[in-house]
Specification:
single chain; 260 residues; mainly alpha; three-stranded antiparallel sheet; two-stranded parallel ribbon; 5 strands; 7% strand
Length: 260
């Protein structure tokens, strides 16, 4: 038995309290859920819910998978395929599971990445933002990574957040769009990041300029890039070319996401 939540799009999903808390913190519950009050029902897919306290290595996860399957009566011969996300420890966990159960199976375990992570990897490769494959579009990748690093700096600093809020107050903004930082393994996250940046273009550009200046909160960063001829402020400050790329990227990925 597990808590299920009803989504406005008709989905009914078993979800943990931690996930609900994160959704509430991100302001997503009103947009996505019909109600934050769960219903108790059987969950056919949830086999184990573990508080993981050891290193998340592929070997340890693979061993846990074997123990969990055995505890609920799933024989190794029942497992023909194993779908994992894009993390390296997920793939190696499937390899470990296959190895430790090799004497009890008559067939190999076919391990594959989920379609969402495959699409995300392909998108990273095409946009030049992947760390694991050759950059196919280095200009776009440099620009997108600049935006990602900026959102990361703002997101972890109350001082930088205050600068952004001050700019918005000065401009008389009655309503602002959240500045969401992309998560590398989440499909469509770069689209949401560029979308929020484009909606807040004027405010964000002004705020970052105030942060990265001789007497700003990022004065050291300003000096590092301003005084180093191999770098330059265009590597950390937004320019017209960046904003043109963000708008084109948002428009292109918006079409692709809706098509899929």
């Amino acid at each position: 038995m597990a808590n299920h939540y009803h989504f406005k799009n008709g989905l009914r999903l078993a979800m943990s309290g931690v996930t609900l808390t994160e959704m509430t913190k991100d302001g997503l519950t009103n947009d996505l859920l019909k109600s934050t009050v769960p219903t108790r029902d059987r969950c056919q897919a949830l086999l184990d819910f573990t508080n993981w306290t050891v290193p998340k290595t592929g070997e340890l996860i693979g061993e846990w998978l074997g123990e969990m399957h055995d505890s609920v009566g799933i024989k190794p011969d029942y497992i023909g395929s194993h779908i994992v996300d894009g993390a390296s420890n997920a793939t190696s966990s499937a390899n470990k599971l296959e190895w430790i159960t090799r004497g009890e199976r008559s067939q190999k375990i076919v391990a594959d990445n989920c379609d969402a992570h495959k699409a995300n990897t392909t998108a990273d490769q095409a946009s030049g933002t992947s760390d694991h494959v050759q950059n196919l579009n280095p200009e776009l990748g440099t620009s997108l990574n600049k935006l990602h690093k900026t959102f990361g700096r703002v997101g972890i600093s109350s001082k930088r957040k205050k600068i952004v809020r001050n700019v918005q107050t000065e401009r008389g903004r009655e309503k602002v769009v959240r500045m969401d930082q992309a998560v590398a393994t989440r499909w469509g996250a770069r689209h949401e990041e560029t979308k929020s940046a484009n909606c807040n273009q004027a405010d964000l550009a002004t705020a970052v300029g105030r942060m990265i200046c001789p007497d700003g909160v990022d004065a050291a960063l300003f000096r590092e890039y301003n005084e180093n001829r191999n770098l330059g402020l265009d590597r950390i400050l937004f320019n017209e070319g960046d904003w043109n790329l963000y708008q084109q990227y948002e428009a292109g990925t918006s079409f692709k996401i809706s098509y899929l």
